[in-house]
Structures are given as structure tokens and as C-alpha cells.
Amino acid sequence: MKLSRIHHAAIICADYERSKQFYTEVLGLKIVAETYRATRQSYKLDLALPDGTQLELFSFPGAPARPSYPEACGLRHLAFAVADLNASVAHLQSKGVTVEPVRVDEFTGQRFTFFADPDDLPLELYETLAASAV
Q1: Of the residues 14, 56, 70, 117, which has the fewest C-beta atoms closer than 10 A?
Q2: Which contacts (CB < 8 Å, 24+ apart) does range 26-35 have?
């Protein structure tokens, strides 16, 4: 078996419309498909990044909150590559998103920061020259 890349990550949100607005209007992800599944009383929103990687946004009634602090076992955060961290931080802040101070990865020397989605899912912006090629 040879894995080639991550195809998608799935996120369950508490407020579908709020999260849809955040991921499409604030983060600028493209809607690929939107489906309402009546049997589950659930929306599924397929979103795409420019490189084809996708996020699936789900809404499930009564889903429990994600334990984050202290950090729980499991997926820690999602990281997005950006070519210009300063511009990306300024964009998020202009949309009212709180962004942590920029740090430098001690192993790679790359700059990064964290922010949260509407359900406090930790998201990271990681500055890399490779992001400008996408």
C-alpha cells in the first residue's frame, strides 16, 4: 500500500449555518456539494481547497462538544499551508477571528499560528513557500 495524500478531513459542527459561513466566506473554501440527509436530520457540506484536498462539514443534532483543553487523544488540529502568514492573519482579524501570536517552528524555522473555528476546533496556518505554488 502506498498512500499519496490526505483526501479529506471531516468536521462535525454545532451550528451548520455559522460554520458554513466561516469555512466558505472567512476561509474561502469552495463548495463542491451540499446535501441534506433527512433520515439523519443532518447536512453534509463538501468543501475544497485549491489543491483538491477536501473538508466535509457535518451537522448532527445533539452532537457532544469536542474536548480540547486539556487536549484529548485523537486529532489535534488541522493545518493549512499559506504563502503569506502576515496577510492571512490580517484577513482573519478583519473578519473578527482571534489569532494567536505568530510563532516559529523550532525544527523547520517556518512561521505559524493558531486560531479556532466557530466550535473551537483548533486550526493552524503554516507559512510555506510551497503554498504559493498551489
Answers
A1: 70
A2: 26/92, 26/95, 26/97, 27/80, 29/55
If DSSP codes are grouped into helix, strand and coil, which group holds residue 17? helix
pLDDT tens, residue by residue, 10-51: 999 999 999 999 999 999 999 999 999 999 899 999 999 999
* Strand pairing class (8-13; 42-48): unpaired
CA nearest neighbour of 80 among 71, 72, 67, 89:
89
CATH of 75-134, one of 1.10.150.120, 3.10.180.10, 3.30.310.50, 3.40.50.2300: 3.10.180.10
* CATH-assigned architecture of domain 1-61: Roll (3.10)
75-134: same fold as 1-61?
yes
Residues 6+ apart with CB under 8 A from 56: 8, 9, 10, 11, 44, 45, 46, 47
Q: What is the pTM for the complete model shown?
A: 0.86
Supply the pLDDT for residue 106: 92
